[in-house]
Design a protein that fits this description.
The protein has about 110 residues and is an all-alpha fold. It has two helices and no strands.
């Protein structure tokens, strides 16, 4: 086991002493109460850090979701434009075949 020492404000010490009294009412020794408070503080800090990471992940998810929506809409527009271009090309090819036939030019087969 390791012994640590550090300075703490009077206000912080008073809050800790109140918690120690609560622990002592639950049959903790004073030393075990301090240890439990310290370890609970560590766990609370770790939980808080996890929540920050989750918030960051949520923000990233929302950002990616909005970017995905923009990409889907752009894809829809491009598909629509592609269909229009395909129809235009088909009509140009049909007109080309008609004019070649009208002029008596043999069509080049692919």
């Amino acid at each position: 086991m390791v012994r640590i020492s550090f300075e703490i404000s009077e206000e912080g010490l008073e809050k800790i002493k109140e918690l120690v009294k609560d622990f002592e009412e639950d049959s903790y020794t004073e030393e075990d109460a301090y240890r439990a408070i310290f370890e609970m503080g560590i766990m609370a800090y770790q939980l808080q850090q996890c929540n920050y990471e989750e918030d960051d992940l949520r923000r990233q998810l929302l950002l990616l979701s909005s970017q995905y929506s923009v990409i889907k809409f752009k894809n829809f527009q491009l598909e629509k434009e592609n269909r229009l271009l395909e129809m235009s090309l088909s009509s140009c090819e049909a007109e080309n075949r008609f004019l070649r036939k009208l002029l008596g030019i043999k069509s080049e087969k692919k």
